[in-house]
Structures are given as C-alpha cells and as structure tokens.
Amino acid sequence: MRLLVLGVLATASAAQAVGALLPHVPLLLVATAGSLAAEGVLYRWQRGMVSLFAKSHADVTVRHVLRDLLLVVGLLRLGEQHREPAYAPLVAALLVFYGLHWAIQAVSVLVRRTRTLPVVTRNVDASALRLTPAPPALLRRPGHRLAVFGLPATAGLLATVVTDAPVYGAAGLALSLLVSLAGLGALLLRLLPGRRPAGEQEVLDWFDAWLAEYRPTVGLYFSGGASSAYQANMWLEPLARLEGRPVIVLRERHMVQRIAATDIPVVCLPKVSTLMRLEHSTLRVLLHPSNSGKTSQVLRIPTIKHAFVNHGESDKLSSCNPYAKAYDEVWVAGPAARERYALAEVGVEDKDVVEIGRPQLDAVRPYAGPPAPGGYTTVLYAPTWEGWDGNPGNTSVVEAGENLVRALLADPGVRLLYKPHPLTGSVDPRARAADLRIRELVRAANRERGGPRPDPSAAAELVRRTAELDRL
C-alpha cells in the first residue's frame, strides 16, 4: 500500500508537469485529481509515510506548492498572450494565501508556547491557571491545514485550466483566503492578554501553594517512553491503598495521558528546576518502578528517601541491576530476589533490601478446593520478556509456551488466562511468532467453547454497576 501511494504521488507529479508544459488539459486534470486523491489516502490510512516524506524534504507544503505551481504554469501555457494579465491576480492571490499559511503557522507556535506550562496536572484543581481548550487540531497541524484550506484554491485553478475562465480560480482562491484569515484571527485572539493562561512564575507560585495545601507524603516517580507506561500503571492500585497522601510525579508531558485511570493527583515536572521544588515539600518517600536517565536528577533531593520497587522480577540481569545501589532501599518480592542481589555482587547491601511481597497480587484469592461441578480451574500463564542479552532462559514463550498452552487448553475443565509481557517479541522475532501462535490458540479455544461460561454473581454485579453508572 505504501509503495502504491508513493508511486501514485510520483507518477501524478510527473504527469502534472508534462501536462502543464505541453500543455495538455486532460492530462493535467487527471494528474492533479490523482495527486489530491493520493494525499487523502496518505493522511487517512498511511500516516506513517507523512514523517517519511518530511524527512526527505518533500513534506505537504512542498507538494502543495508544486501542485499549484504546475497549475499556474499550465494556465500561462494555455492562455494567449493577451490573456496573461487576467491570470496575474490569480498568481498574486495564490502567493498571499501561502503567506497567510506561514503566518498562521508562526502564530500557532506562539500560542503553543503560551499554553506550554512548566507544570502539567491531572486530578488537581487548576482552574486558577485560566486554562482553555487547545485550538482546533486543523489550526495546529500545518499539513492538514494546508491540505484543507488550500483545496478550494487548487480546485478553482484546476477549473480555470479546464474552462479558461479566471472566475473559477478567483472564487476558489477567495474562499481559501477567507478561511485562512478566519483561522489566523482565531489564533490571534488567543494571544490577547485576557485570553492567555497563567505565566510561568504564576504557575510555579500556584504549584508551591498546592504542595503546601495538599501536603503529599509518598509518591511514585516515573520517566520513560510511551511504550513503558505499563511499568507505572501496575503500581497505581498499591499506591492508592497506602496511608497518607500519594502523588504521581512524571517527567514527560506525553506520559500524563498514558497513566491509567486513577484518583491520585498527577504532576508532570519536565524541567529540573521545577522538580527541585519538591525539596521544600512534605514529600518524604518516592517509589521508583524503573530506572531512567532522569532518575539521577530526583535522587539529588536530600529530603526524600528513594525506594526501587521495579516493575517485575525474574532471573534476567535487569532484576539485579547495579544502578539499584543508587537508591536508599530496594524493595523486592521475597527471598529469591534478595539472594539474586547477593549473588550478583553489584553493590546493593543486604540491609538495604526489603521484602514487601507483590502487592499487585493481593486480590488473588487463596486456593479453596476444586471448582464446583461444571466450573473451571483458572490458570494464569504470564511469561516474562525475552530481554536484551539473548539468554534462552529469560522467557518460556519460545521453548515451552506453545506446548504449555496446548496442554492446558486440551483440558475442558481449565480456563486459561494468557498475559504476556507487553514487550514480548520486541527483540527476538521467535518470541513474537510464538506469542502470535499462542494468541491464535486461545482465540480458537474461545470459538470452540462458545465463550466463557456465564457467572450469575458476575452478571448481577454488572447490572448493579450499570445502574450506578446510569445514576451518576
């Protein structure tokens, strides 16, 4: 599909150039229409190619300018000498349109900067900061904006090429200029003093006041990429059950929306200078579910104790990382992890290792005997990640996973829950292939069994929760 879109765009541009230079109206018409259709496909179904074109310096602005330029060349080649002055205003209006496009982009950058606050929050009353919804996405994305705002101008110029009537080009350009002016005006209004959100110092003062009022005691500190959000999300419920006033401290703005649903206050502090304001707060303990480059920045705060809780434990080398000695304490599930650090001799002293169990499993009920007749024995298969080092003992998915799942599914009294590591297959293609085969085995078993057996108590609970949601 990608090669097809690329081929259509390249062929359409070449054909449009030939049609403009010959000149040949049908060829110019078909090539321009094909180019516009390919642009629509590109932005609707092949979004990944947009950045690829940008990296090759053939972004939407370049393609749009080239398309309109070839239409203008076609007009000049088609028109007789005495008609060229009639097309001059169209060319001038087209230049004004592109000038407005770049002006809108400049103003949108200014608006974004005024809206980029030093602190981003969730579950915190920030009404004092005079926050407003972001401008429409069409005004913030130059590619989409140019494609939509420029469509009437391109269509009008194309109609003028076909009919040799400048009125169509003038009408299309007028419409493009009108919507561009409206977009520019909407952005300029946001730069008025009364429409701007709070300034940086005002936000920092507000944040200090919030810290003083909320008086957080324990926090979860997290920094990472978009795919690593699960490492923090697994600790949300245990954090919420702690005594005191918990808070979640993030460092990347994109991570604010990737933290799962929670009532815990979330604060994102991208700058180190803002992060250091925690030193004067009541925060005394930070839990760290992962290591990152930005972890060293918060470790510099002397008033806070730091505990590494990790986001899972296994025999992979990452579970006895030497970086762990940077924390005040290392919290582990049990004796096996303590022994792992002792054998690794990475500098983590035994007195700093604290066994806390695995809080995420607190809701798992102890064995209460075999299931009732007609019921299922539930088995959870949760293999870990293959890791970076290629050790075949890191994960069971490659060597044993498929056979294990087949054996479990062969028993009609077993209900299998398959929960692989979120990064399974990201390093080893064999793990990815095995994971896909296991998923298909589970889907096939679901189809054969006709879905899970209904649980009367679960059905009643669903009715109760639905009624409560309707009431709310």
Flag low-confidence runs: none
Q: Helix amount, in percent?
A: 40-55%
Per DSSP, the total helix count is 18
Report the sheet with the most strands, covering strand number, pairing sense and barrel closure. 8 strands, mixed
Which secondary-structure class do the elements indicate? alpha/beta
Distance between the first and last residues' Cα = 46 Å
The topology string of helices and strands comes to HHHHHEHHHHHEHHEEHEHEEHEEHEHH
The overall number of domains is 3
Strand order of the largest sheet: 1-4-3-2-5-6-7-8
What oligomeric state is this? single chain
Q: Say how many strands there are.
A: 10
Mean pLDDT reading: 91
List the helices and strands and how they pair.
Blueprint lengths: L1 H20 L3 H21 L2 H8 L4 H19 L5 H32 L4 E3 L14 H4 L1 H8 L1 H13 L2 H24 L10 H15 L3 E5 L6 H5 L2 H5 L5 E5 L15 E3 L3 H4 L9 E4 L6 H4 L6 E4 L20 E4 L2 H10 L8 E3 L21 E5 L15 H13 L4 E5 L10 H21 L6 H16 L1
Parallel strand pairs: 2-3, 2-5, 3-4, 5-6, 6-7, 7-8, 9-10
Antiparallel strand pairs: 1-4
